[in-house]
Amino acid sequence: MRIQIKDLKPNPFRDMKNYPINEQKVKSLTNSINQTGFWDNILARGNNGNIEIAYGHHRLVALKKLFKPDDYVDIPVKELDDSTMIRIMANENDENWGTSPKIIDETVKAVIKFLEEHPKEILKFSKEKIRKHGIITGEIISKFLNGNWSESRVNFSLERIKAEETEETHEKHIDKEAIESYPTERSARNFVKAVKQIKNITPEQQRNVAKRMIENQSFGESAIKSELLHEKYKDKKTVKDKEEHDFIEFKDFILECTKDMKRLNEKLEQLFILKTKLKFDFERYSDSIEAKDFDCETRILIDCLIKLLGKEGKEDVKNKLLQISD
């Protein structure tokens, strides 16, 4: 159908004020249209006298840059209901895993609003207990979007939205501007995890850290947490502040050690199973470099644990660990 550009309206479920347009993508599309012409990669529907596009918002911006409002384009117009329009919008926003957290959260908000206004849609995806309480969960949203958005992804978004909309203490509050500045959902998720582990980190401090981490392209949770700690305590000199900083660092390092020991325990269990299965006589290999290294590192580990646990656990730890090399 031939339609004037000025008559094309955005998807009614896409809040154009909050959905950012990627200018780099628009530039790429304008270059492509200039080189090869416009292909009808915009889908629309007729609704109460309006022509609303289901997807192709960046292309629409590119068209408006290249042509006059009265110029015509030829695009497909189909019968699309509201639920289909919102699913198409979600799929358009999910072109890849690098979709920004802002776009993800705005999409989830749009789905929640739609489902609240159309409770019958909820009944198609909810369990009995959810029907009774009327709660729109990550499971329902994921199923409404035909599983194209994983439940875990939606739940992370719901968590960010809740932090944004509730007046919580800074201990748990995640600054909206800081989150939205991150380029990908995964990097924003790491930022949220790191902030949650530090008490009383202010929105301004969060934004300062987010800016530095993005400039340095450093998105790991540990790196973010370290920078948050530095930001929080950089101007604080009291003994109490130092003790709190040291306690957080010590607690984090203990957590890392625990994870490493869990992996070591799994490896040692596999070693025991292998030894039993193959009926190895370890004495045959006692002179090998590998056996000597294993024995040396095991004894160092025992000594370290004895130092950490003190005299009370000394004999018990030593006896149990030495069984490994029996």
Which key terms come to mind for this protein?
mainly alpha, 326 residues, two-stranded antiparallel sheet, 15 helices, Conserved hypothetical protein from pyrococcus furiosus pfu- 392566-001, ParB domain
Total number of strands: 5
The CATH class label of the domain at 2-81 is Alpha Beta
Task: Characterize the overall form.
Answer: elongated
CATH superfamily of the domain at 2-81: Conserved hypothetical protein from pyrococcus furiosus pfu- 392566-001, ParB domain
Task: Detail the poorly predicted runs.
Answer: 167-171
Helicity, as a percent range: 55-70%
Taken as a percent bin, the fraction of beta residues is: 5-15%
Backbone CA Rg: 28 Å
Overall description:
Helix 4 packs across helix 8 (151-165), helix 11 (203-215) packs across helix 12 and helix 14 (289-309) packs antiparallel against helix 15 (314-322). Among the domains are: 2-81, Conserved hypothetical protein from pyrococcus furiosus pfu- 392566-001, ParB domain, CATH 3.90.1530; 94-166, no CATH class; 281-325. The strands form 2 sheets. It has a 3-stranded mixed β-sheet with strand order 2-4-3. It has a two-stranded antiparallel sheet with strand order 1-5. The longest helix has 40 residues, at 239-278. It has helices at 23-36, 57-66, 82-93, 101-117, 119-123, 128-133, 138-144, 151-165, 176-180, 185-196, 203-215, 221-233, 239-278, 289-309, 314-322; strands spanning 2-4, 8-9, 43-47, 50-55, 72-74. The chain is mainly α. The radius of gyration is 28 Å and the shape is elongated. Mean pLDDT is 82; it is low at 167-171. Strand 3 and strand 4 form a beta hairpin.
